Predict the 3D structure of the following.
Amino acid sequence: MEKLILIDGNSLLNRAYYAMGTFTTKDGLPTNGIFGFVKLVFKILEDEKPEYFAVTFDLHAPTFRHKMYDGYKATRKPMPEELRQQVPVLKDLLRAMKICILEKEGYEADDLIGTVSRKFPGVHKYIYTGDRDAYQLVREDVTVCFTRRGVTDIDLLTAENFREKEGIEPWQVVELKALQGDSADNIPGIKGVGEKSAFELLNQYGSVEKLYANLDALPKNMRAKLEAGRESAELSHTLATIDTAVPLELSLGDCKLTLPFPEEARAFFARLEFRSLIDSGFFPAERPAAVEVEICTRIEDLLPLAERVKEFAFCVEKDEAHLYCGGKEYIFPLRENFLTNGFFFEELKPILAVLFTGDRHALVSDVKAM
């Protein structure tokens, strides 16, 4: 089955930022989050070899959840300035890599991931995120790759192992949040209902709807909490539910991954000073620059140049000697007798004596043969 990788961009950039040490470019641009993020991308490419790839981002505009509930995510700390600076740079880098970026005003990255995860039958979707909200999206063709620490320690949640790992079904993640709330997103839940009670109630009744349909069967104290928190539970259920029907014009071809990455991406990596990542094998082999070549007929003409250079390369191949210095290659045809044109090797000694004298860096091949 073909694979589509879906990355929660804000979540994993944040994880990478705190996991990597602080470092910047020579111009002072912080790049630790971007570096860690791209390292994860490369690891995914190596391990999964996907055909399709997309990264989703949140926008600053309020979403339908903020409009519904003023307190939504109100307790979160603002993004550090050094991390904020890296968001637009990462997006530009992904564009240079020709990786699909998804963002839409009024919706969160989770909603875009959720919507795409329900598209494209026959393609297995892998969601990389540090947000447990995505657990509700797990099904036969959707795997959640949860980053537990940093961006490399990953826990795989599948339709086969989810209940064993989490104690509930994927769809019940929303039911759980409706009861116990979610402090990370400031979803209120029901006052007085904690994690243990929420799990017990769901294991017995399955959903919030069925729970409220059986209030009379509950102990008086719990019944009172649920009756008092009915509106809060309904609100929390809506806030916690990922929208899987966002109006999104997207084809599978829009997510097509093209390797190797283009030269534009290599240049961007170089500007960010990601030299180790350029050597990863995801870029086309660099073509050597064209070198001007001259066939030599008079050694005397090259002696002044030989005296000036600080670095040179010299080798002998079959019936030619090659000298590279000063940004140019000089070829000396070699001959074995007086009937052919060129030089006897002994005739090269004047220029070699100059080159191999003094403080010069020499790159030579088969030096013993000389």
